[in-house]
Design brief:
By secondary structure, the chain is an alpha+beta fold. It has helices at residues 42-48, 50-66, 97-101, 116-135, 188-192, 199-215, 235-243, 255-279, 307-310, 355-365, 378-381; strands spanning 3-4, 7-16, 19-26, 31-38, 75-80, 86-90, 95-96, 138-139, 148-150, 156-158, 165-166, 327-330, 334-337, 343-345, 406-412, 417-422, 427-432, 442-443. The longest helix has 25 residues, at 255-279.
């Protein structure tokens, strides 16, 4: 077993020019954490110098350590390893906004748009975090989906303050042509001159994130801002015209002002959505093209491949077809779906569980005679995903509590990962088996 000081390395979470992030365990506590190890590559060290890189790393750790806010990630420990390299230990999160929308290293490619209700939810958290940062005089300068971790309670936690700076602080040392921020999400003035970035630069980046969540694309051209046909109307036009304005003086003055405008949009959208649902007949069922054959019931181990290679999903891991479910109550414990022949437990697990704990939970359900509850396969779980392409789709009731959206499947990806399904946002993904997701049992 490998250790960094008292932290046992479980696996590699990511790597970049500045170093690596590990999933680690503090054995005496039995707690999983994330450890960020500073180990810059030679090119970056030549460009910026070791002293400046370490200064930025310590600066990031101090910001995360002293700011206590529900939407800002916490640092729990710092130190140096036996080679003298700096590290910081942080909260561990299984998901981030980038993985939820399906963004990749090819940022310009389309990703999964989220239902408006989720967009409002995540955007409010993001703006609350920015309001706290800006109140402390801190400009983040790298707001993007992959810097927004998602907690088990589905809240945003902002991370990665390595590029942030205090208001009035001189620009970090380094080459004059060194870009600060991430392509497409960075404001025009910050891209041209990082020293000009202020809190309004973060406002611009936040607007890009919200647009991305709503539409699944980036407004790289003026015509890309056309929201017609996306369950959105012109109430959004003024909002995006302000937060994405190339002139910082014409953007929202603060994150709280932007949040107030977003709250008005949410109220308008909810009123409009309720009116649409009231007009639909009680027996309304949206048309759904195609019905898959009886879903696969035998679990598989797929290996480290994309979901679209092994499951009936598209390139963005969304179902290729949607089932028109016909649910009928089966006593006190189940819902029978006439479309697939599957019976689903009436209630998911009361708490999110690891994949191994899911097995124990099912053993408990199967106490007594003739109980055959099991973990569903991905193919079975995705029959519960409902389309959200039109406003009327959002009126269809579901058998699953909307407060629970991530569910383990019986299918595994590797020895350490299993597949899960996000029933609300409608996609399939692989994740570490130590992550905490709910269980929705099934039987044939």
């Amino acid at each position: 077993m490998k250790y960094i000081n008292q932290y046992q390395i479980i696996g590699l979470l990511g790597r970049g020019g500045m170093g690596r992030v590990y999933k680690v365990l503090r054995p005496e506590l039995g707690k999983i954490m994330a450890l960020k190890l500073l180990d810059p590559n030679d090119m970056l060290e030549d460009l910026m110098g070791r002293e400046e890189i370490e200064r930025q790393f310590i600066h990031e750790a101090r910001i995360m350590g002293r700011l206590s806010h529900p939407n800002i990630a916490s640092v729990w420990d710092t130190g140096r390893d036996d080679q003298g390299r700096l590290f910081m230990v942080m909260e561990y999160f299984c998901q981030n906004l980038g993985t939820i929308i399906g963004e990749t290293h090819r940022v310009e490619d389309p990703c999964r748009p989220l239902p408006p209700s989720r967009v409002f939810h995540y955007a409010m958290d993001m703006l609350d975090a920015l309001a706290r940062l800006h109140y402390a005089g801190i400009i983040h300068r790298d707001i993007k989906p992959f810097n927004m971790m998602i907690t088990g309670e589905d809240r945003i936690k902002l991370i990665d303050f390595g590029l942030s700076r205090l208001r009035g602080e001189p620009h970090h040392k380094g080459p004059s042509n060194l870009k600060i921020g991430s392509p497409y999400y960075t404001s025009p003035e910050q891209e041209a001159d990082p020293s000009r970035a202020d809190h309004r630069s973060d406002i611009y980046s936040a607007g890009m994130v919200i647009f991305r969540m709503l539409t699944g694309r980036l407004p790289m051209h003026p015509e890309d801002r056309d929201l017609n046909g996306l369950m959105l109307d012109n109430i959004w036009d003024d909002f995006f015209s302000r937060c994405l304005h190339p002139d910082p003086d014409k953007r929202f003055a603060s994150a709280m002002d932007m949040k107030k405008a977003l709250e008005q949009l949410r109220q308008s959208w909810e009123t409009s959505q309720q009116a649409i649902c009231r007009l639909l007949p009680e027996s309304f069922s949206p048309p759904r093209p195609g019905l898959p054959a009886s879903p696969r019931r035998v679990p598989v181990r797929t290996g480290p491949v994309a979901a679209s290679k092994v499951f009936p999903v598209d390139a963005l891991a969304r179902p290729q077809h949607h089932v028109l479910n016909v649910f009928e109550a089966q006593g006190q414990d189940g819902w029978k779906d006439g479309a697939t022949g599957l019976t689903w437990s009436k209630s998911p697990s009361p708490f999110p569980l690891t994949w191994e704990e899911a097995r124990t939970y099912l053993d408990g359900l199967n106490q007594g005679a003739h109980q055959t509850w099991r973990l569903p396969t991905v193919d079975e779980l995705i029959t519960l995903i409902q389309p959200k392409a039109h406003p009327e789709d959002l009126c269809t009731p579901t058998i699953v509590d909307t407060g629970r959206k991530w569910f383990w499947s019986a299918d595994t990806r590797t020895f350490t990962q299993a597949w899960f399904v996000d029933l609300e946002n409608g996609y399939v993904a692989g994740q570490d088996r130590t992550c905490l997701f709910h269980v929705l049992a099934v039987r044939a």
